[in-house]
Design a protein that fits this description.
The protein is of the alpha+beta class and 208 residues long. Helix content is 25%, strand content 26%. The chain is built from 6 helices and 11 strands. It has helices at residues 15-28, 51-57, 71-81, 153-157, 178-189, 194-197; strands at residues 32-36, 64-70, 93-96, 98-103, 110-112, 118-121, 127-134, 137-140, 146-152, 169-171, 204-207. Strands 3-1-9-2-10 form a 5-stranded mixed sheet, sandwiched between helices. A 4-stranded mixed sheet has the order 8-7-4-11, covered by helices on one side. Strands 5-6 form a two-stranded antiparallel ribbon. A hairpin with a 5-residue loop joins strand 5 (110-112) and strand 6. The protein is globular, with a radius of gyration of 16 Å.
Length: 208
Amino acid sequence: MLKDGEREVRRGETNLSDFLTDAFRAATGADIGIMNGGGIRNQIDAGNITFGDVYSVIPFNNTVRMLRCTGQQLLDALEVSVALAPEENGDFLQVSGMRYTYTTKVKSSVMLDHNQLFVGIGDTRRIISAEVERNGEWQPIHPDSTYTLGGQSYILVSKGASGALQYMQEIECEHIGDVQAVLNYLDQLGNVTAEDYGTTQQRILCID
């Protein structure tokens, strides 16, 4: 997860973020698993994975929640996510069940208020494309379509990602702890190998 001492997870996809977002999507049954890079606080070395290992990675005692959103709301949240790229950004969104491409060649037009909470987006956008996987096929995210997001309570209901997700509709799911959700996913997999998560899965691409 760490590269040259930098927190790569706050500026790009990592194999650990792929694993965690897959776990949250599995726990909720949502279309998309999502979390902010700043919520990943450690790495996991090869070997047996313990409760302590997982807790050191996501140590904030969040619960797993689920929201329903429009494609436009999701695209706006992604725009906030990449606003500071290529600089580190704790709100950088890691994803499962979707993929997106963005560019740093365009200046971000994301607008925040005096509390640094999302207000809107101007005339330019950095997100070039965003797709969701449905029935084994990749489909463009349509602004008027609806999608479900599964992830931690911080990012989904506590104004994470600069509040870009705060107006989405929460829908019912089992509010288990995020660490337990990851442990359940480990049990479901049976064994995590390098073939599963040895490298990133090319969910996030940057054109700079």
